[in-house]
Amino acid sequence: MKVLVINCGSSSVKYMLFDMATEKRLAKGVIECIGLPEAYFNNQFTGSEETKESCKAKNHIESVEIILKKLLDPAAGMIKNIDEIAAVGHRVVHGGDKFADSVPINEEVMQGLKECFDIAPLHTPHHYAGIEATQKLLSGVPEVVVFDTAFHQTIPDYAYMYALPYALYEKFHIRRYGFHGTSHKYVAQRAAKLLKKPLQDTKLITCHLGNGCSITAVQGGKSIDTSMGFTPLEGLVMGTRCGDIDPAIIVNLLDHHEITPETLNTLLNKKSGLYGISGLSGDLRTVLKAAASGNDRARLAVDMFCYRAKKYISSYIGVLNGIDGIVFTAGIGENSPTIREKACQGLQNMGIEIDPEANNGVSSDERVISTAHSPVKIMVIPTNEELMIARETVRVLTNA
Length: 400
Fold this sequence. Notes:
The protein is an alpha/beta fold.
C-alpha cells in the first residue's frame, strides 16, 4: 500500500511517498515559491541524489500535478500509474475544537475546515487548497486529514482553559489547542520502545525544538498539557516568536506607542525570540556562533531560550508527578548538544543527569544521552511527522 503525504503552505507543497508494507520512504520533495517566477522543485527518490529544477507552478493544483508527473516518470520507477497510490494523507495545522482525531475527508469535513479558517488564517486555507488539488487530480482515492492539534485534545479542561470570561470560550472557542501534535505523538511512541516499557505505563516530557518550539507532558501516550496555546505564539522562546509574555505589554504597546495590531502581530511573531534579543538571526546556529565569539546579546538569547525550556520541563515534572524520560527532537533538539545540556542543567535533584560524552556524540540515530545511573532517561529521537501522517492515514482507512 503506497500512501502519499501532502503538506501545503502558503507558497509551498511538500510531499513524501511511503510503501506502508515496510514503512519505507520511496520519495520526497518540495515545490517552493508557488506563483512566483523563481518557483523551484527539490526532489529525491530513494537511492538517488537530490535534484533541484525550476518549475512553473501558479497554484497548488499545478504543484501537485508536477509532483505526480515526477512520480510517474518511467526513469524514476516510483509508480507506473496513479492507481498505485492507495491513499493520501494531509497535514492540517489547526482543527479547532471540531476535530479531536484524524478523519477521512468528506463534504462535512471540508465544511468544518472552512470554519477553522478564522483561527488559523495563515495555514488552514492553504491546506484546504491542497486537499482540493488532490481531490481533483486523484479522484476516487481515499484521503485523510491529520491535525497537529488532535493529539492535544486529551488535555483536561482545567489545563486548556484560559481564565478569561467563559463567554469568550463559548462564543469564540478561545482555549489552548497546542501544536506539533504529530511530532509529539511519534516521539512518545518511539521513546516507549527505547525505554522498553508499554506506552500506557510511561510518563514523558517531549521537547520539539526547532524554529517553532513546544514542550508537552505525555502520560500513558496522551497529551495532558503543552506549552503552545490558542496559537503557536505562546510558550517557549522561539526563532522569531516571543513565547510567554505579560499580556498587559500588548495593551501598553497599542495604547501608548502608536503600534497598529498588524505591526504588533509582526513584532510578536516575526521580530521577537532569538532574533529580537540577539538582533542577529532567528537561526540558533548563527546565534550560538556569535555567543561563542563573545556577543553578549547572543549569549543572552541562548540563555533565555534554555531557561524557558528548563522552566517548562520542571513544571511538567510536577504535573506528571515524576517522569520516566525526556525526549529532544526537531532541528534544534536533535542537533544542538549545547541546548540539550543547558536545558537540563541544574536538574540533578529531579533525577536528570546528562552524559556529556553521549550528548556531544554525532549521530542521527535514536539514542539515550543520560548517564547510566540517571533515574530519568534523556533521549534524542529524530521526529518523523510524515511517517506518522502515513500511519494515521492507514489507521483511519482500515479502522485499525
